[in-house]
Request: fold
Amino acid sequence: MAATMRKFSRLAATARTASSFSTAATVTTTRRHLILQTASYNSKNIPHSYTPQSHWLSSITTGHNSVISYSTATSAARHVDEKYVPNDVVLYQYQACPFCNKVKAFLEYYDIPYKIVEVNPMNKKEIKWSDYKKVPILKVDGEEMVNSSDIIDKMFQRLHPDSVSVDDETQKWLEWVDNHLVHVLSPNIYRSPSEALESFDYITTHGNFSFMDRVVAKYGGAAAMYFVSKKLKKRHNITDERKALYDAAETWVDALKGRQYLGGSEPNLGDLAVFGVLRPIRDLKSGKDMFENTRIGEWFTRMENQMKPNRGTNLPGA
Ligand SMILES: N[C@@H](CCC(=O)N[C@@H](CS)C(=O)NCC(=O)O)C(=O)O
Reply:
């Protein structure tokens, strides 16, 4: 009985995890010291020499307690004032977490080498050492960084030490991602029993679960999240979740105003944030529907091509 209760309370934790796709506290971080990416173009900048070739699925590796190593190419840095290369970067994450994927998009775009520790959402034993109970957590040369927007702010400052403020347009879209776009995701990916199962199949296949936890989480989590997503819809005043997703995608394409990226000819932090949170739904039914029914596909493909390819190999447990 006690064991069953424990299982259910862990399942509830998994459902909470999944629901945080959409319920995470509203974030309105002010990026006080961020730099306009374009402002840092100067003679010190190292030019691009990029070979677009990655597809996001290529970065997915499964396995329990897996640490996946991502190394960088030796080639050019992005347009940064000075090349900042930390020695040891570890991302504690859930593979399907939109906030974690935001951080990953940033690291991959800036060609920062990092390792991944896939956290088991049922016991979170991999992050027991931290007081922060969520992911992403980024450890940079031993320093703990939490909260995706704050992590990106900090890392961006280090890449661009001669900082100026982020421009208002980018700031607006960064807040839109945290306050709107992420909330549209859960009602979509858990929309129907079959989509909820598809999502949990993805979550449990790519996450860090024991065999039994995987089975329990897949079916229990899908059922729980199907119902939770209806509540989330109400909470965020969403009536038609697909329309909300399509509208968000179209809103973003309109925001580009015909530019290749929000950042112009190169992605900026706004592009990376939108791309990061949409990446986990890319191959789910909701993501496929979004690509079929909106104009976002071309920009998304351009962004995929901006990511560094995964050259990593699986390493033994964390
Ligand atoms: N505002 C945070 C939200 C982070 C968040 O809610 N993460 C979820 C995973 S998507 C989480 O760890 N939830 C707590 C849990 O799993 O118990 C951020 O941007 O990093």
Notes: Residues 130 and 289 are 38 Å apart (CA to CA). The chain has two domains: 45-164+309-315, 168-306.
